[in-house]
Amino acid sequence: MICSTLKKGSFILLGVLFILIKVKAQENFQCSLSDINTIQEIINSPKLDRKTPYNELIIAIGELFIDTPYEGKTLDQNTDTEKVVAHLSGLDCSTFIDTILALTLTIKNGEKDAVDFFKILESVRYRDSKLNGYASRLHYFSDWLQDNTDKGYLRNITKEIGGVEFNKEIKFMSTNRKNYAQLAKNDSLLDQIKEVEKKLNSKQHFYIPKEKVKSIGSNLKSGDIIGITTSIPLLDISHVGIIKKVRGKCYLLHASLGKKKVVLSEKTLDEYLEKYSKHTGIVVGSLVID
Questions:
Q1: H or E segment at 209?
Q2: Is residue 195 part of a domain?
Q3: Helix (H, G, I), strand (E, B) or coil at 284
Q4: 24 plus 102 within the same structural domain
Q5: Which CATH number goes with the domain that contains 259?
Q6: Cα–Cα dist 127/151, whole Å
Q7: Measured between alpha carbons, how far is 71 from 88 in angstroms, rounded to an integer?
Q8: 163 with 222, same domain?
Q9: Which positions ≥6 away from 21 have C-beta within 8 Å?
Q10: Helices in 160-207 by DSSP H: which ranges?
Q11: Cβ(229)–Cβ(281) under 8 Å?
Q12: Which H/E stretch holds residue 19?
């Protein structure tokens, strides 16, 4: 689990408090003093060099969070106002990916301030890099991957490494509005989500069936971000994580609901997929290396 090792000296604490004030001054950003402490510690760590290759850096940062508790719905505490939330003491699979990618990009950009991290986190998490209400959040991983590909952060390599067409209607959120506090009684927001789904369904998508994942393992790299496709009706992706290669085999670094914490999978990726009948395959986003 990521733990603060900052000294308790007044100078350092005042510095962290000053940065917290700067973050709070941005009305759309939300975090705690502990979150700022952790962010500052990571992006200023001498062990995390911006010259480190992207794929090595994202794994190194992700592994700092191993054993961090699983915590869902941390982005949905403010049902009336959407905010860019950083909650690093508890992560679900999506916030784990957002956070680790944003930390990696912050370090690679040479930034040393948590305010810069928040700006990058906003860019990663929201359509066209800008928070514009609940519907601008990239709720569906297919949407998230496409948007972050368009931004130049990732490249969707699914098709080129053997993916086949993924023919599935995606409208889980609008069909299950009661499961989303923001949508339950807000018809305007519901219409916005339906429009997002309509655009998603107008595009061609690809996936690698799970029975083929082992055979394409050599095409996967440490640091690749994967979404796991699902047989759940009307849903595209049910889980996400980061590939780590160990002795040539693929493992999954992820926030696990079953383990209730961030872990590196004990089983190889293909074995992990076989364990769950609703997992049908993967899509793959590879980090864009300058």
A1: strand 206-209
A2: no
A3: strand
A4: yes
A5: 2.30.260.10
A6: 10
A7: 10
A8: yes
A9: none
A10: 172-175, 181-184, 187-201
A11: yes
A12: helix 10-25
Whether residue 228 is predicted with pLDDT greater than 70 in this model: the reply is yes
Q: Model confidence at 142, in pLDDT bands (50, 70, 90)? A: very high
Give per-residue pLDDT as tens, 110-121.
Answer: 999 999 999 999
Q: What 3-state DSSP class applies to 264?
A: strand
Q: State how far the Cα of 101 lies from the Cα of 145, in Å rounded to an integer.
A: 12
Residue-wise pLDDT tens digits, 161-179: 999 999 999 999 999 999 9
Residues 212 and 126 in one domain: no
Domain enclosing residue 111, as ranges = 10-136
The length of the chain in residues reads: 290
**Is 88 in a helix, a strand, or coil?**
coil
Of 254, 201, 204, 246, nearest in space to 226 by CA: 254
What are the phi and psi torsion angles at 288 (to 5°)? -80, 120
Query: Angle at the Cα of 200 (from 90 to 117), degrees rounded to 5?
Result: 35
121, 105 Cβ separation under 8 angstroms = no
DSSP-H helix ranges across 170-288: 172-175, 181-184, 187-201, 269-275
- 239 vs 246: CA distance, rounded Å: 21
Q: What is the pTM of this model?
A: 0.93
Q: How far is CA 28 from CA 23, 73, 90, 115, 122, in A?
A: 9, 18, 20, 11, 9
In-domain check, residue 178: no
Token pair, residue 27, equals 């009305």
**How does pLDDT run across 253-282, given as a tens digit for each residue?**
999 999 999 999 999 999 999 999 999 999
Our CA angle for 93, 99, 105, nearest 5°, is 135
Same domain, 220 and 270: yes
Residue that the structure tokens 């969707």 belong to: 156
Of 107, 68, 74, 45, nearest to 260 by C-alpha is 68
